[in-house]
Specification:
By secondary structure, the protein is an all-alpha fold. It has 2 domains: 136 residues, no CATH class; 144 residues, no CATH class.
């Protein structure tokens, strides 16, 4: 009998938990943001979320069905292939579809969402081997692909409002606030301060999401924090990972703004609007912490989050738009290099003691 050692693809979770269980927890953590998006943006948010999830799951099934020979021999093996797909279904496509929907503006068309879902699963995930083998985050890559392909709808943001669920025109529901078409509250904040005036949105507005022009799931920071607490309690992510990223990003953003915004001082009054604007908080909790596309060791993760936060702050400073997806995509490509040079200590490793001369 041959003794063989099978080494699976990292990360290696040291518990009885399965990938399906972990992804189920991520889905639960995303529910508050999904519900908040529906409350703020109405039925269109429901349509986008359902279409995105269904397109991602359907794409994974079709790809698996074709790859496993479901159409071979006049589909005689179709039933077995369907059963096999269901047994290996680990909810990763559901998470990808839900995250993709939540980082999209409500102005996107339903067919654009389907194209984005197909790109995320077929090209970014399944083409490279499926779960655990994708080089970059599928939802992030799909968001960048849609931004480059459908620039008009992807850069038109409606303002979040509690009355949106009533069904009237979402883009014109914001009363008493500054409504922006073609830009987020982030660009108003950055460009407005450069001319000596601030946005009509307060820090409380940015925290609650009221009146904020942004994506479906990125506006209400309360909902994101609820998901963050749940993930920490379930030990899906480490509590310090988003905190480190947000802290470094806020510090870099304030330092950069200090040279650009003369009326402001280095204080929390500028720190909070930076971290509460755009999709920084959502990216820190749900996207930068992706198991597959982040470094495996602690030292590598420190490098990853610090460099990613600094990169996002610099890109924001020069572009004046939300570029969290681009920062994540760039950092994902550097993960293999980070893992190579930030070598983890092997399990059970004991450093050899140097013998003194003469012994």
């Amino acid at each position: 009998m041959n003794n063989e050692i099978v080494i699976s693809t990292p990360p290696h979770v040291k518990s009885r938990r399965t990938t399906r269980g972990i992804m189920g927890d991520v889905c639960i953590a995303l529910v508050p943001s999904a519900v908040a998006g529906i409350v703020f943006f109405g039925y269109m948010a429901v349509i986008i979320e359902l279409v995105s999830v269904l397109s991602c799951v359907a794409t994974e099934f079709v790809y698996y069905f074709i790859a496993k020979g479901g159409f071979a021999k006049k589909c005689k093996n179709a039933k077995n292939v369907c059963i096999s797909w269901w047994r290996q279904f680990d909810l990763t496509s559901v998470v990808t579809g839900l995250i993709l929907a939540l980082i999209l503006p409500v102005s996107v068309k339903w067919y654009e969402v389907i194209i984005g879902g197909i790109f995320a699963i077929a090209i970014v995930k399944m083409f490279f081997g499926g779960t655990g083998k994708n080089l970059v985050n599928p939802a992030t890559a799909a968001r960048v692909f849609m931004f480059l392909s459908f620039s008009l709808t992807m850069t038109t943001y409606a303002a979040a409002n509690f009355s949106a669920i009533g069904g009237s025109d979402i883009a014109s529901q914001l009363v008493g606030k500054e409504t922006i078409t073609g830009a987020t509250n982030l660009s108003t904040f950055l460009l407005g301060n450069s001319h000596g005036h601030t946005s009509a949105l307060s820090t409380l507005d940015l925290f609650l999401g009221t009146g904020v022009n942004g994506s479906i799931g990125e506006t209400c920071k309360v909902a994101i924090l609820i998901g963050y607490v749940y993930l920490c309690i379930r030990k899906v992510i480490k509590w310090w990972q988003p905190v480190l990223f947000i802290g470094v990003f806020g510090l870099c953003a304030v330092l950069l703004s200090g040279f650009y915004f003369a009326p402001y001082r280095f204080d929390i009054g500028l720190f909070l609007p930076h971290i509460l604007s755009g999709g920084v908080l959502f990216a820190a909790v749900f996207m930068f912490t992706d198991y597959v596309t982040s470094p495996k060791g602690v030292y590598g993760q420190l490098v990853y989050y610090i460099c990613g936060a600094a990169l996002l702050a610099v890109l924001r400073y020069f572009t004046k738009i939300e570029v969290a997806s681009f920062a994540i995509l760039i950092m994902n490509l550097f993960v293999p290099l980070i893992d190579k040079y930030c070598i983890r200590k092997p399990f059970g490793y004991v450093k050899e003691k140097k013998q003194k001369e003469g012994k």
